[in-house]
Amino acid sequence: AVLPFSPDQNILSTESHEESSFRDLQIGQLNFLHTTDTHGWLGSHSNQDNYNAKWGDLVSFVERFRENVVGENDLLLIDTGDKHDGNGLSDATVPNGLNSTQIFNELDYDLLTLGNHELYVEDNTVLEYYETVLNEKFQGKYVSSNVEFVNDDGSLVPFGSKYRYFKTEKYGLRILALSFLFDFRRFNKRAQVTPVLQEIEKKWFQELTETYSMEDIDVLVVFGHMPISDTENREINQLHAKLRHIYPNTVIQYFGAHTHIRDFVALDNKAYALQSGRFCETVGFASIDDITKESPLVSRTYIDFNLNSFLHHSHSNSIKEFETDRGTEVNERIHELRKELNLTTKFGNVPSSFYMYNKPLSSPHNIYNFLTKRVLPTLKRDSDNTADVASTRIIMINTGAIRYDLYEGPFTSDTEYTISPFSNTWNYIQLPMALAMQVESYLNGMEPIMTLNLPGEQRRQCPLIEDKTLSRGYTTSDDLGCKGDDTPHRSERQYRIPNVVQSIESTNNADELVDFVYCSFIQPFVLEALNDLNEDQNIVDHTFDDKDCKIYGGLSIKDLLREYIISLN
Ligand SMILES: Nc1ccn([C@@H]2O[C@H](COP(=O)(O)O)[C@@H](O)[C@H]2O)c(=O)n1
Ligand SMILES: [Zn+2]
Ligand SMILES: [Zn+2]
């Protein structure tokens, strides 16, 4: 056994850092910095000081960290995808990601891959393939073991390398890297995703594991757009069981993504997994020491994405000492791009803050409450589409369509993209009231598929930190305990949100028919709900399919929000 796992004891850190404002990183032989689910947030969070660093600052951080801290040890820089949908820097261009991709690619990743957001829309997939997969600097380093790109002529090619086998620079550690996307089904026609368990049954994988046996590998790195805590589908656990069977005694380090949480999981006593949050709020750090010995040691730290943290962990004494030419140049490009895309154009003022998780759904300061009560009812259907209007209307959205809190203060073009970046349309079906009224509770009884996890999801109970001298922020609990965040914070109060929320407007309660309007992303789930409910209750003699769904028209969520805010001022 590599290390007898017991929370907060096997990390290399002593726990004596509480008095300093930072918990220090524990450098090992092999160190990792991990980003994930950046979703275009390359220009910092203007509303939150905790996350005030820009992508150029991360470029500087990596350079300084390598020079001043890593020294004779090894460092690998890893990203696990989802680079679009969430911020104006990526989403205000056509195609989405046109300029932000080049800025993102300034970081010299050793291993990178794609997320589901690189696969929803054809343009994004094509851009990702040509700009990043085929980018000379990432040759061999862009890995995707279970996704293929569909060429113009219809032929399939791997979306990057199937694997990477290499030796680290300093210790010459032999690394085999694989990368898997979770079982994502909504990919566009320029891509093909094979579920991980099917992929590893293929010949190439059998041959690979014969070529690189346990004796040829010091560390197996499995990084991908896949949650590391997955109680519903257990994909990572199934993958791990297979890999452990092939490599019974190899150190395995996983890097996960997609659920937007800070997380560290001990899969067994020689296999660990790190997941590093979302939206450039976190740089994940992990280290492994004494790798070739019988008992390697592991550590993890979630670094807040801000300048104080970056300076501290890179042992820089001042901004002047910290900033590198390349980092400064990247920040200038971000500044220019923000101007070019008019992201600071102000449309109005948000009167008070509205939160996704920090206020309960019943609170007027909850963003879903605000949207369903105030904003969604302003939706107008296209004017050439007014026949057969029922006098009751339900408008339903998936809570995952909303990506970020709405803060009091200026409402800019960028704010729109941070709240709801998607260009989903509004569709509708006319339904009997008895059926329409049941869809919400049906969908909310399903697993959390159309929502986003709480960013600070508490899997293991850690004490709530209520010290008022600390700033609000992440107080993460993971398999190594409660001290993974680099900065001790005061806990945020968090409330669960359902899969979907809806507004109901009625002009005539006796009406038997309802215009059931919903955003197009949830159409398959709505159809499933209707057919399942109807099968049980036989309300109508009909099986619902896409042909029943009509275009309702009207402004997107982000445009409705903008119009609403303008109307307040
Ligand atoms: N057109 C879309 C695409 C996605 N969503 C929401 O995003 C969720 C996935 O986001 P991740 O960052 O976790 O990959 C998805 O479950 C939807 O809730 C959307 O609303 N519209
Ligand atoms: Zn994501
Ligand atoms: Zn994702």
UniProtKB/TrEMBL annotation:
Gene Ontology MF term list: hydrolase activity
- Which InterPro entries does the annotation name? 5'-Nucleotdase_C_sf, 5_nucleotidase/apyrase, Calcineurin-like_PHP, Metallo-depent_PP-like, Nucleosidase_C, Pesterase_C1039
Sorted alphabetically, the keyword list is:
Signal
Q: Which domain of life is it from?
A: Eukaryota
Any one GO CC term of the record: extracellular region
Q: Name one GO biological process term.
A: nucleotide catabolic process
**One Pfam family it belongs to:** NadN_nucleosid_C
Q: What is this protein called?
A: WGS project CCBQ000000000 data, contig 00016
Q: Which organism is it from?
A: Kluyveromyces dobzhanskii CBS 2104
